[in-house]
Amino acid sequence: MLHYDMIRYEIMYLKTLNRIFNTDHSLLCSTYETPDDFRRLISQILERHFHGVQDRIKIARKTLKEWADLQLIDKDYFDCFKGRYT
């Protein structure tokens, strides 16, 4: 069973890619059972968009990480916000 800490970055990467490319991979992702499944999809999207040009893919991965860091909610903050800590 997947949990937050296992795939939080991958989910943010996919949300960002979906916004940029105006796509939706949520139905496909709902069938995934491991973090590697998500990583493979991210790689496929980047390979397809950048036509396999590794330099551009590397830059895109770095940019995705930076954007995800800006959007990601820390789990402790999330738990506190949801009232799980008293």
UniProtKB/TrEMBL annotation:
List the protein's name.
Uncharacterized protein
Output the lineage of the source organism.
Answer: Bacteria, Pseudomonadati, Pseudomonadota, Gammaproteobacteria, Enterobacterales
